[in-house]
Amino acid sequence: MKDVGFGSVLLAALFGVASASSISTREIRKRIYTYPSHVNTSPGSYIIQFEDDAPDNHANHYHAMSGVDVNHQYSEVFHGISVRTDDSIDPLQLASVEKVKRVWPVRHYTIASQCGKSSGAPDPYLHKPTGVERAVEELGLSGKGVHIGIVDTGVDYTHPELGGCWKTEGCMWQYGSDLVGDDFNPPIGNTDTNPGPDPMDCVGHGTHVSGIIAGQGPNVRGVAPNVTLGMYRVFGCPAASGASGTSDEVLIKAFEMAFSDKSDIISLSLGGDSWPDEPISVAAASLASKGTVVVAAAGNDGKGGLFTASAPAVANGVISVGSVSSWNYTVMEVSVSNSASSNSVITTLSTSLGRVFKFDSETPLVAPTFTANKTDCAIVEEDLTGKVAVYTRSTSCSFRVVAKALDVAGAAGMILINSQPGLYYPTLEGIKASFISVTTEDGNLIMDTIAAGPATIKGPTSKPFDIPAPSEAGQLSYFSSMGPDPHLEITPHVLAPGGNIYSTFPTKLGSYFVFSGTSMACPYVAGAVALLKEARPSLSVSEVDEIISITAKPLVNSSTGIVEHPYKGGSGLINVYDAVKSRATIDPPRISINSTTQGLLTSRAGTSLGDTRWSARAISLTNTDKSNDMHVSIDNSGSASLSLYYPNGSIAYTPLAFGGNGLIGGSDNTLPTIQLYDAPATVPAGQTQEYTINIIAPVALNDTNGWFFGGMIDFKLQWGSETSTSVYSVPYAGLHGDYSKLDVLAPPDSGYPMIGSGDSEPFDPATLVITGEVTVFALFSMAVPSPLGIIQLIDSTNKAVGYLPTGYMKYVPHTCPLCTLPALPIPINGTVFTDEELTNPVQAPAGKYHVHAAFLRPLGDANNSDDFHVWESQEFTIA
After folding, report:
1. What contacts 772, CB < 8 A, 6 or more positions away?
2. Has residue 229 been placed in a domain?
3. pLDDT digits over 388-430, tens only?
4. Nearest residue to 573 (alpha-carbon basis) of 329, 322, 320
5. Burial, 731: exposed, middle or buried (Cβ in 10 Å; 0-12, 13-18, 19+)?
6. In this structure, is residue 28 part of a structural domain?
7. Pairing assessment for the beta strands 328-337 and 388-392 based on DSSP bridges
8. pTM for the whole thing?
């Protein structure tokens, strides 16, 4: 195939040389943002951001515009509007109004899927390692006088452990609103809002979050039980599948309301893709700049590896929160019997949303037989009505698929036998039956009981109670999303308990539930910040971020004995007691390295450190104790470097680790190091000292495998004649190499890019004939987020016919097989668009074509063809 020069396929060049008048059109187009194909948007709906100096009545331009209805007007934290348009209006017209900064399609969000693996416990076990217990018991803190606004699914305020009240005198709930109503559920349902009188929760997520922050006990004791709360309901009731959705125009309205109601802190257990340039990220950053502490969940795509942190957690000034596993299981007991024996078995609580495992009389217990065919790995022929079904977790068929099959067969309850050590706490949505899990050992006992004769189950026979969790207690949760963000900023910032957390749930749905996710860790940090703000109300947003970060405890990996990489664990597990009692500040609280100097480096002793990559950074250390000098020593805790690729060049969705005992490299000298220059040993009372530190990447790393190094700079501090030492840590991380040179597409052995089906089954382009009856996609696996993707259809004369549907996009996220987005699908159906806004469709004539795709590398220049990663497909036919 003849090579296509990048410049020759840009439509601006193909459709004519730009005239003087079209130059302004090109500039206007830069204001318009188009999303990748996986993003659900509302057709004809847009969010428009105005320039800061636009007058307050600037929306009048759109009120007067035929074909445009202004849906929301924002003024508190976002200067702009949302609109709905008819077919006569395209985004170029919207962006052409003076003093318009950006135009986005209105996009939809769903509640992040909740995960589960092990642990979970009521509050006492969570509050000790995080310093909450000491802050409450020794310092008398409870969050009193601090206001937290929660943007979520609503709250069951009738719950006895959540006050049982709404906006009455002395009630914990003093502000908030329903913004949407029960029927609102984009993208699969109604997109029109019809708010109710209060934000009553019919999903459960928001009620669970509320208990983590401020549960009153006795079963759930929140981090800050005396805070004043507001709830802003932005999700309607779930569909039959269990899915609940919202839109960014509603979210921004909720942000504005929470700000107007004078929230000190806003908790956001929601998110989308990984870019800080999306509307909710822009609005969240504005909130932070105006003095509101914004805490956001990092996301639950940790299985996808690096670059999986979500917006708005990646927004500037927002505290991004990852998750650690809890220190205990929350469990119950059931009785399993046959004619010869009766045994008590420990199980999880029900993890089927809204379904309580409760059988007051002996209920038949069976192990059904499963069959399979080419399309279905779990078929149940027997009628399971009135029975509890048992099955074993398998790698050949997802337990969720099996659960659906059992549900169709009428099972009254389900028991999953975990095939791995410990208990398993998955969250199931859209299942009518209750669902519990048991260990392998107890599962064997159940199966033996069934095999010995007709078996029954009864229970629960106990109230929920706690047992110690296994070795992953306090370790990084497997689902916790990793950084960096697309600009190599460190995220998450801190960690908190998020693995299998027992908390409040709507009374109509069982009153209590176990959820896992960074959605649970986020409100924990929001509550911790409330304790800090109660003790030190004058702290600014940046000071709160700084203090909770530097006083967090770096997480040590139990397998390797070294500190988790900052892209995984940020600064570590929060410790609110140490944050309240802190007597020093460090600026910056984290160091993101997006460029390094390559060359020979010599130590202070004159020893050559070799030809290595390094970066010199300045750090300001302030002694906030006005009475005592602060004695300083500085150390380094290096982390294992992480790579996007295996040595053979294939992509590593679970990042390859290098350095430290038991890892590739095998010795501690493969860890990053630091070098100090004339570091002052003492900082006088109330004074600040500057430190220059060289951060040195491991010498053994190369530039070709996408290695990200990192670690902690540990400041060991003593005041006056005190003998105790406080350790404050600053994480650092960066790329070994040039970020702007990284390939953004996964290597070919990943199977991508390809021409294939929506299920990523490849088609042979040589024999492929696209008629419109077969759904065909160009599929891309993104190793690294890309600022811009351009996918065009090229004819047999090597001329670009147009952009494929969704073929001009900004903010392309990382993808992976285990992520929310497995691959980026671009439809090929014969329709192409002649404009970047994708509003002018034309039909490609019958003939031979191929796909030309170009993705801009990180930090790249869209005007430089060398900054794009380009792929050409084989030729195929459009009939």
Report:
1. 829, 830
2. yes
3. 999 998 878 888 889 889 999 999 999 999 988 888 877 777 7
4. 322
5. buried
6. no
7. unpaired
8. 0.90
pLDDT at 6 over 50: no
Q: Which residue has the tokens 């290096």?
A: 638
Most confident option among 376-385, 455-464, 764-773? 455-464
Question: Do residue 104 and residue 203 come from a single domain?
Answer: no
For residues 232-249, average pLDDT: 87
845 within some domain: yes
Q: Are residues 350 and 417 in the same domain?
A: yes
- Single-letter amino acid, residue 123: D
User: Using 50, 70 and 90 to split pLDDT, how confident is the model at 2?
Assistant: very low
From CA 333, how far away is CA 685, in angstroms rounded? 58
Tally Cβ neighbours within 10 Å of residue 400.
15
Is the per-residue pLDDT at 662 higher than 60? no
> Residue 12: what pLDDT?
35
Average pLDDT value for residue range 829-847 = 93
Weakest-pLDDT range from 492-496, 724-728, 760-764, 865-869: 760-764
Q: pLDDT higher for 372 or 555?
A: 555
* Whether residue 424 is found in the same domain as residue 279: no
When divided into structural domains, the chain yields a total of 5
Are both 596 and 527 inside the same structural domain? no
Question: Could you write out the DSSP letters of every residue in 760-802?
Answer: --B--GGG-EE-SSS-EEEEE-BSS-EEEEEEEEEETTS-EEE
Please indicate, yes or no, whether residues 482 and 362 belong to a single structural domain of this protein.
no
If you write DSSP's letter for every residue of 90-134 in order, what string do you get? Answer: -HHHHHTSTTEEEEEEEEEEEPPPP---S----HHHHHTTTTHHH
Q: Specify the pairing of strand 80-85 against strand 68-74.
A: antiparallel
146-174 tens-digit pLDDT: 999 999 999 999 999 999 999 999 999 99
Cα angle 57, 58, 60; round to 5? 75
Query: Any idea of the CA torsion for 36, 41, 43, 46, to the nearest 10 degrees?
Result: -100
d(CA 123, CA 311): 28
Who contacts 865 (Cβ-Cβ below 8 Å, separation ≥6)? 5, 6, 7
CA dihedral angle for residue 23, residue 26, residue 27, residue 32, rounded to 10 degrees: 160
403 lies in which domain range?
331-466
The answer to whether 567 and 306 are in contact (CB under 8 A) is yes
Torsion of CA 123, 214, 317, 83, to 10 degrees: 130
- Taking residue 872's Cβ as centre, other Cβ atoms within 10 Å add up to 16
